[in-house]
Amino acid sequence: MKIPRFIRDNIVLKITSLNAVVITVRLVISGFTQWLLSTTFGETGIARIGQVRNIMGMLTSISSLGIFNGIVKYVAEHKNNKAELNKLFSTTTVFVLIGSFISGTVLFFGSGYFSEILFKSDDFKYVFKIIAFIVPFIALNRVLYGIVNGLSEYKNYARIEMISYLLAAILLVIALYKANLEFAILAIAIAPVIQLGVIVVVFGKVLKQFVDFKKLRLGLDYKNSLLAFTLMSFVSTFLLNYIELSIISLIEDKININEAGYWTAVSFISKNYMVFASGLFTLYVIPKFANIYTKEEFKNEVVNIYKTILPIFGLGMILVYLLRNVIIDIIYPDFKGMEPLFKWQLLGDFTRLCSLILAHQFLAKRMVKSFVITEIISLILFYVLTNLFINYFSTEGVVIAHLVRYIIYFIIVLLVVKKYFSKNNISEYKNEDM
Questions:
Q1: Between residues 390 and 305, which one has the greater pLDDT?
Q2: Per-residue DSSP letter, 214
């Protein structure tokens, strides 16, 4: 079948269309695994698994010292310059070794602490010790995935996402069939390792064209450049997951563990459809913005992205809202307390998408101060507003805080981006505000 010209000529729409297929499959698989989780372990299990996912989110960032977006940016800029790529990957090797050692050691020797904090017992110590040995593979997976995104290999990206998610889901289903929570946690932890194997198989030949493994050495040529992304990742990934862990504990303490399970379930649904946008960000937005230097060109590109994905995203969110009770009945039986949370979560996520498109200018241009300050403001707003609203609106207050936070964040990011272009009057190539 011939692809319509308006799709062929619009790379954003091509990536979005292909990504939509991946996300649809992912949502179906995710829905099934979440149904198994909810029926096997109930609200408490959903909350605990949510906490484990937050820990994995932290590990994904720390194990590679948070350089994923830096790899995307510099691979996009230097993909035709092998000498620069060798310098980049030599520095990346050092970062991965340091990050893996630190995070693996902390996890291994702190296994009792993590088990006690998350599960209120030390029965899961051995699980966290096993995960500690998986950490280097998580780091390597993150690096290779950054290369895929930096090269805008969206077709390979789709294949990797589809195959790895399916294999990881099969492993999780086996764990849930055995009704074994420890096995389920390990299945979630092993998912990045599975993805690493898929990347090597699917993307190995292309990877060798850009990474000369024989010339890799321990170097620090890109140390300062990548450290900026380490700082940004610490704020956006590590602190975000820490705040979410704190909010789960807050809901559990102020209301009950069941309500924490409802919020975790709604958040998990949100994260699944937000993946629809995150693929576009790393495959297209960061590489594209990295090579834009004028206000007019930036404005035109943002308008193009908004016109392309916001209607699609908005329609999808409307469908999620209209089908919310069906989703609950099918995926989360007896989780009726979720229903009031949908409208605020969806409105917050739509505002978040509008904000993040603009905010990726900070990553593309390595605007460290702008990124860190706006992210910290966003996280503080979320935590403070949650503490405030939960007293008046119960668990619904958490998702109301989510919406209010992103409305304020959008306004702040818009003002900062406008100031950036006005200040630099971008006719020369300035790429940082450090």
A1: 390
A2: G
Distance of CA 405 to the CA centre of its chain: 18
Q: What is the pLDDT of residue 279?
A: 66
Give pLDDT, residue 407: 96
pTM above 0.85, yes or no: no
**Crossing angle for the helix pair 239-254 and 368-393, to the nearest 10 degrees:** 10
- Say which residue, 12 or 2, is predicted with more confidence: 12
Per DSSP, the three-state class of 205 is: helix
Q: Which of 341, 374, 327, 378 lies closest to 38 in space, CA to CA?
A: 327
Q: Which of 118-122, 319-323, 331-335, 358-362 has the lowest mean pLDDT?
A: 118-122
* CA 71 – CA 94 distance, rounded (Å): 14
Domain range summary for the chain, segments of one domain joined by + = 12-424
Contacts of 337 (CB under 8 A, 6+ apart): 258, 259, 262, 395
Is 68 within 8 Å of 142 (Cβ atoms)? Answer: yes
pLDDT of residue 283: 67
| Torsion angle of C-alpha atoms 178, 184, 276, 238, degrees rounded to 10 | 170
Tokens of 9: 């000529």
- Rounded to 5 degrees, what are φ and ψ at 99? -60, -40
What 3-state class would DSSP assign to 367?
Answer: coil
Report the distance separating Cα 339 and Cα 326, nearest Å. Answer: 10
Beta strands (DSSP E) in 4-79 are: none
Q: Could you give the CA distance from residue 48 to residue 338 in angstroms, rounded to a whole number?
A: 17
Q: What is the DSSP letter of 433?
A: -
Query: What does the block give as tokens for 217?
Result: 């050495």
Inform me whether the pLDDT recorded for 58 exceeds 90: no
Average pLDDT over the chain, rounded to an integer: 80
- Tell me the three state secondary structure of residue 122: coil
pLDDT recorded at residue 16? 57
Query: DSSP for 398-414?
Result: HHHHHHHHHHHHHHHHH
What is the signed CA dihedral for 169, 172, 176, 182, rounded to 10 degrees?
Answer: -160
Mean pLDDT, residues 157-168 taken together: 80
Q: CA–CA distance from 226 to each of 96, 229, 373 (Å)?
A: 12, 5, 18
Candidates 69, 65, 72, 73; CA nearest to 93 is: 65
